[in-house]
Specification:
The chain has about 575 residues and is α/β, with parallel strands linked by helices. It has helices spanning about 25-30, 35-40, 45-50, 90-100, 160-165, 195-205, 215-235, 250-265, 285-295, 310-315, 340-350, 370, 395-400, 435-455, 455-475, 500-510, 525-530, 545-560; strands at about 1-5, 15, 175, 180, 180-185, 245-250, 270-275, 295-300, 320-330, 355, 375-380, 390-395, 415, 420-425, 480, 490-495, 515, 515-520, 535-540.
Length: about 575
């Protein structure tokens, strides 16, 4: 048996022999056994001894147990057993000596265009001249962090190392009021990794042109980059075809497109549009506008006391009059993960079309639109580590084909006379004018970056971090978490008795901690729980237990001296 380290060129790769035990030796395995490697590399032992060991929640350690999260007075420690056999490598150091000299940076990069680097590197760090000495020096990211335990990645991914990931985000080195930035406002927007920043710069330096309608080289480069990003989105979402991917400004524009194009064609007087109590304003207002215009009715499915959608009431509200169901996958205000698979099945059984608002889910969990069966799925690039001003409407091809254009202009037409216009097939039909070309390319780079890390690994790490943060928040006197559903993503909304959310947010800002304070563009769900505003801390793949500790400590200090919130 053997395996290959994949490269950008599918015809090239580095084949590695398996161990005598028959276990596959791949990049992920090399990373997990890097400590043995260090002992075989000159100077490795000294470097490893000098490197601090920082526990990460759920990380494997010697002896087959999970270390508890960093110590905190408010969190009990516990060991969790790790299942699964450990490959028995015989003379691993000798094997490494035999394998590593054959690995070359040329096998890990593409000469024509910067590829998404291994975690911990950036475009700028990769060689651009393959004839230089630096191009021939192997650059394995797992050699950069020695002795740090990390969460295991899924098959084909290096180990999840949050500290290495943090180095990919330059803004995280920023200081605010003399303190390290703690970015807990990820539900509003996420920070951008070097691969996205560098990809945008590369586009403007080497590829900038309008697309599709020219015979020159830069137009071809820009078109390839733009359509390549579309294919990357297709793969990331599990869509059947790139023709099902429409680039828009964001999730808000995507919902408006569906409401104005699909809705105007299919929704009539007396029909019903069904949403839930959890929705962002962007998934309420466009449907209100459509209902008012068409004489239709907006119905709202309620939630229970934990903030979870009540499927029994949702099913009761489905009738022969229901034309479309539009539901958030994850609540931006509470973090509730709704049972969208069941929602879609019930809605289709009733004959309704379904739109899933995935703005808050795509950065936290794997998405497979084919498996879900959704007719539409929308997302915003800036909430999935991509640029602002770019988003995606996924639509089943058979549904998109039947929809009229929403906006008219160049690019979306096939032929124009003064008597009539013929329109392109989707997705071009819905991309009138010059689109946001560079930021679409940047979004593709962001999704490729996440794919390199592995969405299941991100979901697993964030689930542990959310649990850690939840337990810590509950120790703060007078604090109440709003939204306690059993299935949540990385959002924690809370209030503290006697303190205004805006005052809490301002006080945390003085400590370098960025949270959101307000109604989060989701007033109906906050009012359902009796509040006009909350404080919202939202987590992402680059946040750490140490940052959570800083938040908890600051809140404890604030409740001990409430006047600090009003200085």
């Amino acid at each position: 048996m053997s395996t290959q380290i994949p490269t950008d060129d599918p015809t090239r790769g580095v084949t590695l022999a398996t161990s005598p035990a028959g276990a596959l030796l791949e990049a992920a395995t090399l990373a997990r056994w890097a400590n043995e490697l260090f002992s075989a590399v000159p100077g490795g032992e000294a470097s490893r001894a000098a490197a601090p060991s920082v526990p990460i929640p759920g990380a494997p350690v010697a002896g087959g147990s999970m270390p508890s999260p960093p110590s905190a007075p408010w969190l009990p420690t516990a060991d969790t057993a790790v299942t699964g056999a450990t490959p028995d490598f015989q003379s691993f150091a000798a094997l490494v000596h035999a394998v590593l000299p054959r690995l070359d940076a040329r096998d890990l990069t593409h000469p024509a265009l910067p590829s998404v680097p291994l975690v911990g590197q950036s475009f700028a760090a990769q060689p651009t001249n393959l004839d230089t000495a630096s191009a021939r020096a192997p650059a394995f990211y797992f050699l950069q962090d020695r002795g740090i335990p990390s969460l295991p990645r899924g098959h084909g991914h290096p180990a999840f190392d949050v500290h290495s990931i943090r180095r990919d985000f330059p803004i995280l080195a920023t200081q605010v009021h003399g303190r390290p930035l703690v970015w807990f406002d990820n539900a509003a927007t996420t920070q951008k990794p070097n691969v996205v920043i560098d990809r945008l710069s590369y586009f403007y330096r080497n590829e900038n042109s309008n697309i599709h309608r020219a015979a020159h080289e830069l137009a071809a480069r820009a078109t390839d980059a733009y359509e390549g990003a579309r294919r990357q989105v297709q793969r990331f979402l599990g869509a059947a075809s790139a023709d099902e991917i429409v680039f828009v400004r964001g999730a808000t524009e995507a919902i408006n497109l569906v409401a104005q194009s699909w809705g105007r064609k299919y929704v009539s007087a007396g029909d019903e549009i069904l949403v839930s109590h959890l929705e962002h304003h962007a998934n309420i207002v466009p449907w209100q506008m459509l209902a008012l215009e068409r004489g239709a009715h907006l119905r709202v499915a309620p939630v229970d006391s934990s903030g979870q959608l009540r499927l029994d009431e949702f099913q009761r509200l489905l009738t022969e009059h229901t034309k479309i169901v539009s539901i958030a996958h994850v609540s931006n205000a509470l973090g509730t993960v709704t049972p969208v698979k069941e929602v879609i099945e019930l809605a289709h059984r009733a004959g309704a079309t379904v739109l899933i608002d995935g703005a808050q889910s795509v950065s936290h969990m794997p998405i497979d639109v084919k498996a879900l069966g959704a007719d539409f799925f929308v997302l915003s690039g800036h909430k999935v580590f991509g640029p602002t001003g770019i988003g995606v409407l996924y639509g089943r091809q058979s549904v998109l084909e039947e929809m009229p254009p929403w906006q008219g202009g160049g690019n979306m037409i096939e032929d124009v006379t003064f008597e009539r216009s013929l329109y392109q097939h989707p997705p071009t039909r819905f991309e009138a004018g010059t689109g946001n070309i560079a930021d679409a390319v940047g979004l593709g780079a962001a999704l490729e970056y996440l794919t390199t890390i592995g969405m299941p690994n991100i979901e697993r790490y964030e689930a542990q971090l959310l649990s850690y943060a939840t337990e810590g928040l509950l120790t703060v006197p007078g604090l109440k978490i709003i939204g306690t559903a059993a299935h949540k993503a990385s959002v924690l909304s809370f209030v503290i008795e006697g303190l205004e959310p805006t005052a809490i947010g301002s006080a945390l800002n003085q400590e370098g901690i960025a949270v959101r304070a307000g109604h989060h563009c989701a007033q109906p769900i906050l009012r359902r729980f009796g509040h006009e505003s909350t404080v919202r801390a939202s987590l992402a793949l680059y946040n750490t237990c140490e940052e959570v500790d800083a938040l908890i400590h600051a809140l404890h200090q604030l409740t001990a001296s409430p006047t600090k919130a009003y200085r």
